[in-house]
Amino acid sequence: MSPALRAYQYNLLAYKRTWRGSLTTTFLYPVLYLAAIGVGLGHLIDHGSNKAVGGVPYLWFLAPGLLAGTAMQIGANESTFPVMAGIKWLKTYFAMLATPLEVTDVLYGHLLWILTRVTLASGVFLAVMTAFHTVPSAWAVAAFPAAVLTGAAFSAPVMAFSATRETDRSFVVLYRFGIVPLFLFSGTFFPVTQLPGWLQVVARCTPLYQGVSLCRGLVLGRPGGWDALGHAGYLLVMFAGGVLAARVSYRRRLVQ
Amino acid sequence: MQARRLTKCFGEFTAVDAVDFDIHVGEAFGFLGANGAGKTSTMRMIACLSPISGGTLQVLGLDPMRDGPQIRSRIGLVPQDDTLDLELTVRDNLYLYGRYFGLPKKQLRERVDELLEFARLTERADERVDPLSGGMRRRLTIARALVSSPSLVILDEPTTGLDPQARHLLWDRLYRLKREGVTLVITTHYMDEAEQLCDRLVVMDAGRIAAAGSPRELIEQWSTREVVELRFEAEGHQVHGDRLADLAERVEVLPDRLLLYTDEGDATLDAVRSRGASPIAALVRRSTLEDVFLHLTGRSLVD
Fold first, then answer.
1. For the packed helices A140-162 and A225-254, what is the interaxial angle rounded to 10 degrees?
2. Under CATH, what is the fold of the domain B2-217?
3. In terms of residue numbers, what domain contains A166?
4. Closest CA in chain A for residue B43
């Protein structure tokens, strides 16, 4: 077994203890959001005009946006506090480094686990979406890897950031000024065309916008050719850049 | 293991300053020193956790800078702070650690049972680590370091913070390892621990090696065979110290007592009494490593 997979195995074993609670949350989260905002609020919106949301029911518009937004949140969540735990609270990283495992093994093992969590959450989310009848196209199958890619694009850079932090206070700042605004304004709940001109440009440049557009296009059966490739390319570059940055920050933090 | 002019710097600060030492297969070797003397930095370099800043170091005949994973696969590290996963069970902590070494599952399960027995934790095997006492956690950390049957075990302050019962149980386990031919490298600031466990040791002070040898040799070289401790009424210690200075090889005046370093404690005490000095308490004892240590590194607090 490769050394990174041995590090990965730690998370599997630790998850065995918490998987029930974790899976329940993973399942309830889309159910609650889709029911309250998609069905409840969407019902009011659909009484008006649905031109702005592309002529589909609001619930259809919202669901893929939430899918991408959820993938981002899981990717970011799992890359903050658990990384701090590995370095400071439980020191699991240091336990691993006293064995033949190397810094990159520790990093890749944890990253692989985060991607596993994003994959699980995205899969459950898509299943719930199907149950809510919000998946009109077979293209939606391709939204699964797209959502995972969105989560991945956030996880690696956030891991790189977390490994430079001394306390978890920075994570609150990251959420308040990073993750939450992205979640609200990247076209998740309403089209970015609703924003004033200059904010539209900003919104279109954000990473979550790429994930939301990609997932929405695929779920609604309008994959959108070059645009989609552009979104995917953006996310891939962000992931790769994050991995390189994390290699540097992990080494700096863990080898002294 | 061989170190020549081994150095570790953190920015401007030199934690380990050009130290030389050799550690032979099967011996128990100690690093003694106050907090901040450079013990842990030395340990971390030996365990290939921390790159060396200067000099040369060979561990198990290999180069830590190049062969880190290979060296670590043959050593067991007991770090100063436990790095146990408190939320996992005792058994899972051992099992996972073995997996980090790539040990096959079946063989590992048997090894874990042996180690649980060794650490006297069999009854707590399936409980979480969190509620365990400090002594139990320490035993678990040591058991964990042994999971890969290492030929070299590095223990960084293995018994700090433990009660006497827990310390003696740990010492007993370390003797057993030594008998099995495992090389032990131990840092400690407990002199009795060093005297009990170490065949040879070095005393570190401010990143340097102040003295080296077996506990017996160190005492012979740096102290006398015996020490007479005298306690007088009130503030008279300095005065008495001056009056009695010629009766011993060395006299040390402390705020509450007077230490006379001599080879014949009883004879010295008789001589003290024959001069009419009347201490309220007198004690003749053998010299210990602690006398050597305090002589070499001074009595003032380091930090």
1. 30
2. Rossmann fold (3.40.50)
3. 3-254
4. A98
Number of domains in chain A: 1
* Contact flag A255-B51 (C-beta cutoff 8 Å): yes
Residue-by-residue pLDDT tens, chain A, 256 positions: 789 999 999 999 989 888 888 888 888 988 898 888 878 888 888 777 666 777 889 999 999 999 999 999 999 999 999 999 999 998 999 999 999 999 999 999 999 999 999 999 999 999 999 999 998 888 899 999 999 999 999 999 999 999 999 999 999 999 999 999 999 999 999 999 889 989 999 999 999 999 999 999 999 998 888 999 999 999 999 999 999 999 999 999 999 8
Please answer yes or no on whether A95 and B70 come within 8 Å at the CB atom.
no
ipTM of predicted complex: 0.86
From chain B, the residues in CB contact with A100 under 8 A are 69-70, 72-73, 100-102
What is the phi/psi pair of residue B286, to 5°? -75, 155
Q: Which residues pair with B228 in a beta bridge?
A: B260, B284
Mutation target to probe the A interface, by most A beta carbons within 10 A, among B10, B75, B96 is: B96
Say which CATH superfamily domain B224-286 falls into: UreE, C-terminal domain (3.30.70.790)
Quickly tell me which residue has 């005009």 as its tokens: A49
Non-local CB neighbours of B41 within 8 Å, separated by 6+ positions: B8, B15, B16, B50
- Domain residue limits, chain B: 2-217, 224-286
Which two three-digit tokens encode residue B18?
Answer: 């050009």
pTM score > 0.95 for this model? no
